[in-house]
Structure formats: structure tokens, C-alpha cells
């Protein structure tokens, strides 16, 4: 840290992304990416758009926003395109910073980092003993709320009716529902945005549509909320979604059926993987995501992670008290999961 860095960041612990190692070829199951490459149409659209990058990109993302609005069944002014849904979350934490933000103890690590970097108060609410969100903990709590559904790290989904009750019971606060993993078995809240003026839903093409490295996400909500986010977006970086990404993402929406079929395949491979883990004595939380959170009684989670890594299989491990006995495993292709299970058997 230099001596010029703001004192207010003295204690800031930045987000630590999952490893992207270049040292050897791993079976990479640590950052919840898709194992599939983007479709041909997406690659062609990106290549074509590359020819126009001497010009600034369209800050309104007109073509993409129109298609995204159709995809989500909302109006064009109910969507803001962002540089990965992380950016949508950042804009929302920034926009509604007068109030405390509540979120679970085990969830996406960025919520805490955003609160800390923006100087917001946070209220951290433990998941119950089954690693579930208990809606009663969020009823009528009088602060902003952010919930990942399905939840990050656990993969567990909360019924939409529970989320709706939470939204309804906190009418004077913002509720953000982070749906990064919604396409793998959850029930989206997007169709509630007309009913609740305090709801923001975020989605991403990083997980279900093979565009993690292109950085594209969406905030979805009523027009007034989207106007708030746009005011801040135009106060920071109006050109947040580059031309290549805009065109690639628009093409991905044209190929939506292909991506949804891939999601169904991932869900099948997930069931296969969970069965394999059952046979090895693991207990896996019920996942509605493209990853699973699993543990084996009497085995050290850190050691399993390290032993797998040594054998070329990379999973994610979190060193906090309630998570250290678990490993988080992205669902890759069937072949990758066969290697994972076989390697795990060797490790045990
Ligand atoms: C991956 C992830 C995101 C971020 O997605 P990007 O669109 O790649 O920024 C947001 N929330 C959760 C819970 C995630 O797992």
C-alpha cells in the first residue's frame, strides 16, 4: 500500500477470485464456469464486432437490451446492461447506501466487500443448521437485503414464495435477488418486478451462457430503480459493456435454446455426480446450481482440496469455520466429473 492510499481503505480486504492457474492443465471445477465453448453464432458475432472497435460502443446497449428485455419478458427500460452482474450489484449497493445491507453469513463474498469498500453498514445473518436461508430472519427487518437465489457456495434455492414474502414485508427497503445460477433449477423472480417497486433482480451470462470472460450481466427492475442505476453508471463508466460483448451476448440470446439444453445437461450430470459422491460417503447439499457443496464426515476439507489439486483436479475450498469441512465443485462435462469422482476415490 502506498502512503497516498485513502485511510478509509486501511482495513479493506478485497475479494479473492477463484484461482485461474496457468501452471498446468487442470480439470477446472473451481469457478462455476460453463464447460462448453460459446456457440458458432456467438463467436462470429464477436469477430464481426471486433472490426468496429475504433468507434465507441453504444452506451445504451440498444440491440442487446431489446433482446434481453424479450428474453426476460420485461420492458426495455426495465433492463440495465452491465459489465458482469458484479457491476449491477456494485451499482445497487452504491445507489442504496443510506441503509444497512443484510445478507447471509455464507453467500457470495462480494456482498461483504462491496459494503466494506463503500463504507456501508452490514447485517450478517447466519444460515440455519441445514445451510438454508430462513425467510423469518428477513421478514420486516427494515434494512436492504441481498439474497443469492440459488445461494452461492451452497447451491440451495429458496422457494420463490418465500422471497416474495420477504420483498412484501420490507416495502421501504431494497431487496436484491442475485440470480446468477437461476438457469440450473431455480424459480426466477423477474416476473415480480412489476408488482414490487423495491425489487432488483440481477442475472449473468457468465454461468449458463458460456460468456464468463466476455463480462455481461443484467439488472432488472422497475423503471425508477433502473434510472437510479443508470445515473450512477453514467457517473462512473457509461461505456461499461464493450462492443464485442454486446454483439456476442445478443447472439447468445438468439441461441438461447442451445444454452438452455446445455443447462439441462449440466443438471443431469449434477445428479450423476451427487450419486457418485453418495457412494463415496459424502453428504451433498441439495443443489439447484451448476455446482455442489459437499462434505465427508471425518475427512478434512482442506486436505481433500489440496490432494485433488495435486492430482490435477481443481475445486474451491473456503477456510471459514462453517465451510472448511466442505468443498465446492463446479459441474463440468460428464467426462470431467468421471475424472473428478475417480480422482476423489484415489484421494480417499
Ligand atoms: C458468479 C457470480 C456473480 C458474478 O457474475 P458475473 O456476471 O461474472 O460478474 C454474481 N453473483 C453470484 C452469486 C455469482 O456466483
Care to describe what's here?
With 348 residues, the chain is α/β, with parallel strands linked by helices. It contains ten helices and twelve strands. The protein has helices spanning 40-50, 62-72, 85-95, 110-118, 160-169, 223-236, 243-254, 256-279, 301-310, 334-347, and strands at residues 27-28, 79-82, 101-104, 122-125, 144-148, 175-178, 199-204, 217-221, 283-284, 291-295, 313-314, 326-330. The strands form three sheets. The chain has a seven-stranded mixed β-sheet with strand order 2-8-7-6-5-3-4, sandwiched between helices. Helix 2 (62-72) packs parallel to helix 7 (243-254) and helix 3 (85-95) packs across helix 4 (110-118). The radius of gyration is 20 Å and the shape is globular. The site of pyridoxal-5'-phosphate has 12 residues, from helix 3.
Task: Give me the secondary-structure category.
Answer: alpha/beta
| Secondary structure: helix percent | 25-40%
Q: Let me know the number of strands.
A: 12
Strand order of the largest sheet: 2-8-7-6-5-3-4
Biggest sheet layout: 7 strands, mixed
Order of helices and strands: EHHEHEHEEHEEEHHHEEHEEH
Q: Roughly how many Å apart are the termini?
A: 42 Å
> Which blocks of ≥5 consecutive residues have pLDDT under 50?
none
The gross shape turns out to be: globular
Rg? 20 Å
Strand content: 5-15%
Q: What is the residue-averaged pLDDT?
A: 97
The small-molecule ligands in this entry are: pyridoxal-5'-phosphate
Number of helices: 10
Amino acid at each position: 500500500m502506498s502512503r497516498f492510499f485513502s485511510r478509509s481503505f486501511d482495513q479493506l480486504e478485497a475479494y479473492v477470485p477463484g484461482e485461474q492457474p496457468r501452471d498446468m492443465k487442470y480439470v477446472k471445477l473451481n469457478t462455476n464456469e460453463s464447460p462448453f465453448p460459446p456457440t458458432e453464432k456467438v463467436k462470429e458475432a464477436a469477430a464481426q464486432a471486433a472490426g468496429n472497435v475504433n468507434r465507441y460502443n453504444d452506451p445504451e446497449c440498444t440491440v442487446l437490451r431489446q433482446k434481453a428485455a424479450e428474453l426476460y419478458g420485461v420492458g426495455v427500460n426495465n433492463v440495465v446492461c452491465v459489465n458482469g452482474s458484479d457491476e449491477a450489484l456494485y451499482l445497487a449497493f452504491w445507489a442504496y447506501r443510506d441503509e444497512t445491507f443484510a445478507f447471509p453469513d455464507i453467500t457470495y463474498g462480494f456482498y461483504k466487500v462491496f459494503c466494506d469498500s463503500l463504507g456501508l453498514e452490514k447485517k450478517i445473518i447466519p444460515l440455519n443448521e441445514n445451510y438454508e436461508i430462513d425467510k423469518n430472519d428477513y421478514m420486516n427487518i427494515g434494512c436492504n437485503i441481498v439474497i443469492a437465489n440459488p445461494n452461492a457456495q451452497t447451491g440451495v434455492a429458496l422457494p420463490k414464495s418465500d422471497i416474495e414474502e420477504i420483498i412484501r414485508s420490507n416495502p421501504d427497503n431494497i431487496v436484491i435477488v442475485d440470480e446468477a445460477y437461476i438457469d440450473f433449477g431455480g424459480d426466477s423472480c423477474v416476473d415480480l418486478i412489476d408488482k414490487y417497486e423495491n425489487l432488483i433482480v440481477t442475472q449473468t451470462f457468465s454461468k449458463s451462457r458460456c460468456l464468463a470472460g466476455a463480462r455481461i450481466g443484467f439488472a432488472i427492475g422497475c423503471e425508477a430503480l433502473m434510472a437510479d442505476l443508470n445515473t450512477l453508471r453514467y457517473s462512473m463508466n457509461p461505456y461499461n459493456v464493450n462492443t464485442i460483448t454486446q454483439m456476442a451476448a445478443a447472439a447468445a440470446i438468439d441461441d438461447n435454446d442451445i444454452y438452455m439444453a446445455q443447462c439441462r445437461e449440466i443438471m443431469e450430470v449434477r445428479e450423476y455426480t451427487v450419486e457418485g459422491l453418495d457412494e463415496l460417503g459424502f453428504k451433498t447439499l441439495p443443489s439447484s446450481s451448476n455446482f455442489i457443496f459437499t462434505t465427508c464426515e471425518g475427512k478434512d476439507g482442506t486436505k481433500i482440496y489440496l490432494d485433488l489439486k495435486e492430482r490435477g483436479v481443481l475445486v474451491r475450498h473456503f477456510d471459514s469455520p462453517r465451510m472448511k469441512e466442505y468443498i465446492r465443485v463446479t459441474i463440468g462435462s460428464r467426462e470431467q466429473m468421471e475424472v473428478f469422482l475417480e480422482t476423489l476415490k484415489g484421494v480417499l
